[in-house]
Design brief:
This protein is an alpha+beta fold. Helices cover 62% and strands 13% of the residues. It is built from 8 helices and 5 strands. The strands form 2 sheets. It has a 3-stranded mixed beta sheet with strand order 1-2-3, covered by helices on one side. The longest helix is centred in the N-terminal third of the chain and has 31 residues. The two termini are 37 Å apart.
Length: 303
């Protein structure tokens, strides 16, 4: 699916650049720029999927999950750069208007619309949830909207002769490109910075883990994403002093609870403290003054 969409997009981009230059239409050229970023999105999605499925080895112990995320990040950043170039060109066009071949502009945009719609349908039938495929689909949808705008613009230029419509359309397309890119930049950066995965709340996970029978306290809890869909967790869990064979059942229950959150890579360190009974109930012989929810100073416990 991806390879096919990629080839079609690249061929079409080349054609659109050619047509844009012939028709003197900046909107077509900016759409070609947009299409090129789509080709990039598709290429990166393909590379990302290929790398994510590569097995882990002695050096890359997590495999290549992050490669897809880095790809998405680079891709979205390129989008923003292309949009800035479009703004610059559009400003020049507004100062020095050019004559435009509206008929060519119309036909090319119509072709773009058909192609983008076909690719959106193709990709949507495939992988859901992967950040790269999602990026590619968002791009394609953006393109379809852009193509519609250009069709409208070409018709308007044809009937009014008002060539400013062309650079104004390109600016709108540029803003749209930045808008789509921004969301992906934000999400991929969050993964690269080991941020909390989207849709997961730390307090909820802590609460669910603490609710497991036998768990006294949960602290030093970290949750992060390996790729766009694989989450990992590490935590210290305080339990009564018991033989490992007895604590295995607790561990199993904790992992079942975490599976419910979509977290399958877990590293759980059990801690056993003898309880010293005193007037204020249970007191640990080893002082645990911090409570896990507000505990940020312990990030160096694992790597």
């Amino acid at each position: 699916m991806l390879q096919l969409s990629l080839a079609a997009t690249l061929l079409f981009t080349a054609f659109e650049v050619f047509a844009g230059v012939r028709a003197h239409s900046l909107a077509l050229l900016s759409d070609a720029g947009h299409n090129f970023t789509d080709a990039l999105a598709l290429l990166l999605a393909a590379i990302g999927l290929y790398l994510q499925n590569k097995p882990a080895n002695d050096v890359k112990t997590y495999g290549y999950q992050r490669a897809g995320v880095i790809a998405a990040f680079l891709n979205a950043t390129t989008l923003v750069v292309i949009a800035l170039v479009i703004f610059w060109e559009a400003a020049g066009r507004i100062i020095h208007p050019a004559s435009i071949d509206d008929r060519l502009m119309l036909w090319v945009a119509a072709a773009a619309l058909v192609m983008n719609t076909a690719i959106v349908v193709l990709l949507n039938s495939g992988g859901e949830g992967d950040i790269n495929i999602r990026a590619a689909v968002i791009h394609m949808l953006g393109d379809a909207v852009g193509a519609l705008a250009i069709i409208g613009g070409a018709i308007a230029i044809h009937y009014t002769g008002f060539t400013y419509i062309d650079p104004i359309l390109s600016i709108v397309l540029g803003l749209f490109i930045i808008y789509t890119g921004w969301d992906i930049i934000r999400e991929s950066l969050n993964i690269l910075l080991e941020g909390l995965p989207r849709g997961i709340q730390l307090s909820q996970v802590t609460k669910a883990m603490s609710a497991v029978e036998g768990v006294l306290d949960v602290h030093d809890l970290h949750i992060w994403s390996l790729g766009s869909s694989t989450h990992a967790l590490s935590s210290h869990v305080l339990i009564e002093d018991m033989p490992p064979s007895a604590s295995a059942a607790i561990l199993k229950k904790i992992n079942q609870v975490l599976c419910g959150f979509g977290i399958h890579h877990t590293t759980i360190q059990f801690e056993h403290m003898p309880c010293v009974l005193s007037e204020d109930g249970c007191k640990m012989t080893h002082d645990h003054s911090h409570d896990g929810a507000h505990d940020h100073g312990h990030a160096h416990h694992h790597h």
